[in-house]
Amino acid sequence: MALFKKRTVGKPGEWYYCLVHKKVEEGPECPAKDRFGPYTSREEAQHAMDTARERNLEWENDPKWHDRTKETPDETPD
Q: Which segments of the chain does DSSP mark as H helices, in order?
């Protein structure tokens, strides 16, 4: 028997989106590595993947995010 039991972190009333089971959960039920959240409502957690997709597009199109521009060729070390 293990001395320390692994526990999920979070409180009831917080909502999460489980990336493994692809479902919204209150609590949490799954380990932190497998979920997005916490969210303040079930509806917000249901749209977690949409939110992540929108944020990724914003970062991809943010000129401050990229070190190189399209005009700058990739440098390869000799």
A: 42-46, 48-60
